[in-house]
Amino acid sequence: MVEESQVAFETAPTPLETAPAPLEVRPPREVSLFWRTFFLLAMLLLGCFVAWLQTFRALEFEPRVLQSAQQIASLVNLSRAALVHSDSIARVSLVKTLADEEDVRIAPREPSDTYLSYDTDSLTRSVSQRLKARLGEDTIVAREVNGTPGLWVGFTIDGDPYWLLTDPSRLGIVTGKTWLIWLATGAGLSLAGAAIIARLINNPLKKLSFAASRVREGDFSSSKLNETVATSEIREVNIGFNRMAQRLSKIEQDRALMLAGISHDLRTPLARLRLETEMSVDDPQAREHMAADIDQVNAIIDKFLDYARPDQIKSESVNLNQVVDAAIFSLGNDPNLAVTTRIPPDTMVMGDAVELQRIFTNLMENAQRYGREPITGVCRVEIAAKAKDNWILVKLRDHGKGVPPELLPQLTQPFFRGDASRSSAKGTGLGLAIVERAVQRLGGRFALANSSTGGLAAHMKLRKARPDKAGDRQDPEEAPAQTT
User: Fold this and answer.
1) Which candidate, 353, 311, 330, places its Cα nearest to that of 441?
2) Phi-psi category of 12—alpha, beta or left, where left has phi over 0 and alpha has psi -120 to 50?
3) Among 359, 325, 362, which residue's Cα sits nearest to residue 345?
4) CA atoms within 13 A on the CB side of 232
5) 55, 250, 342, 475, 476 from 480: Cα distances, Å
6) Are strands 105-108 and 160-166 parallel, antiparallel or unpaired?
7) Strands 391-397, 482-483: pairing kind
8) CA–CA gap between residue 147 and residue 449 (Å, rounded)
9) What letter would DSSP give residue 419?
10) What are the E-state strand segments in 16-127?
11) To which H or E segment does residue 320 belong?
């Protein structure tokens, strides 16, 4: 094969590589609607948590600090008053009663005592400051004295220092572990709820997307949506979509019936007209021209039927060499047509043999009409294929004049035949449109490009049949060339 042509939307193509269709190119980064909804709900819940914490600080933190400081200050004052106004015998009994009944211990404070300040967090610091404000600046609030933990308050009675030890839970402090457990529980429940809500919101849209894909593939029976859902808006959308799918199905059925009727109604009078022409027209030249016109009308009918063929195709393993040979044989013995193939033996593709033969026949007929060499008038067609990953890459090219680059995207449009010189040709403008639709029905890709050495090149990607055989991996440059 000669040098490869460049397809417009390819970047540095490898030999025989067919570029992917532009519509199949996806953004490099994308987030599904489910995750987008989930993240939005999660951010909303996080904002609610932050707002709740601020509300808690404003409405709960300050009152709790004040209440805790008042309770401890009252306990210290009551203990001080009780000790001051009791004699020595009653004082011993009072200290014992406070320790047994109220879990409050009172002990003398020695100068050698060591203690740790009760300032572990903002709550305890605020409580310490308020206790000093109520009991005096010489008041000491500690969380540990001489290695003994607890809530220690240092105060004086008639100049003598004392320690009051009580349970730290009197402050009503919620520990960090408790906060962590509750926050983790709340976050887990909130995220689970956000996931459920996001799924409930996106599930109908997911079903609608699947049904739309079924309609796009022509499978109207699998595209019916539930019309009894509880949500009124979703129910209306489902009902409207089902009615649209039913109407499209009816239009498709009417189209197939109409085309079948055209085939039946036109071919019978054409056959009768052909017979009458052979029997009634005496002039051989006129009879030959009339017969050619009738054949052309038959060919046009065949093209219309091929273009409107339904999309359902049952794929099976097909030998590509056999399909190409059959397509070449169907063209007859044209002395001005030379076809060279370079396809590895036992190259198997997934598809339909009749559909694949129709693809290659249309491409070679198109080359036969428009791809003749300007000087010799001979149409030289080269067909090459090779395997790559899960695909069979096929290239079919002629050595004609090629096509203006601005017209390349329009060649696969129905009834488009290029410039004025092509409009005079005996064709319907459906050949390449049929090829593109057929390749898409087979799950492949199709593109056209001008060859760098002249002529038009058709690139195809066909699905590779499995299991792979040894012959499938043979390089096309090593496969023997066959010329017809």
Assistant:
1) 311
2) left
3) 325
4) 0
5) 83, 51, 6, 10, 8
6) antiparallel
7) unpaired
8) 88
9) S
10) 105-108, 115-117
11) helix 320-330
128-159 burial by CB neighbour count: b if 16+ within 10 A, else e? bebbbeebeeebbbbbebeeeebbbbbbeeee
**What whole-number distance in Å separates Cα of residue 194 and Cα of residue 200?**
10
Q: What percent of the chain has pLDDT over 70?
A: 76
- Compute the residue count for the chain: 484
**What are the tens digits of pLDDT across the range 34-43?**
777 788 888 8
Predicted local distance difference test score (pLDDT) of residue 211: 86
Identity of the amino acid at 481: A
Tell me: pLDDT of 266 over 80.
Answer: no
Lowest mean pLDDT among 115-119, 194-198, 217-221, 455-459: 217-221
Helical pair 431-441 and 353-370, crossing angle rounded to 10 deg: 150
pLDDT at 3: 41
Report the distance separating Cα 356 and Cα 462, nearest Å. 10
Q: What pairing do the DSSP bridges indicate for beta strands 391-397 and 456-463?
A: antiparallel
Residue 58 has what pLDDT?
67
Q: How far is CA 256 from CA 153, 248, 263, 266, in A?
A: 96, 12, 11, 15
Burial of 207 (0-12, 13-18, 19+ CB in 10 A): middle
Q: Which residue has the tokens 């987008």?
A: 36
* Nearest CA-CA partner of 299 in 354, 380, 361: 361
What was the pLDDT predicted at 45? 81
**pLDDT grade for 19, boundaries at 50, 70 and 90:** very low
Q: What is the dihedral of CA 171, 175, 178, 179, to 10 degrees?
A: 100
Mean pLDDT of all residues belonging to the chain: 76
Which H or E run includes 306?
Answer: helix 284-307
pLDDT, position 483? 56
The span from the CA of 339 to the CA of 483, in Å, is 6
- Residue from 468, 333, 327 nearest 391 by CA: 468
SS3 at position 229 = coil
Token pair for 275: 């017979």
Cα separation, 328 vs 212, in Å, equals 39
Map tokens 């609607």 to a residue.
Answer: 33
Say how far apart CA 370 and CA 423 lie, in whole Å. Answer: 11
**Predicted confidence (pLDDT) at residue 383 exceeds the cutoff of 70:** yes
Per-residue model confidence (pLDDT) at position 481: 54
Q: What DSSP state is assigned to residue 57?
A: I
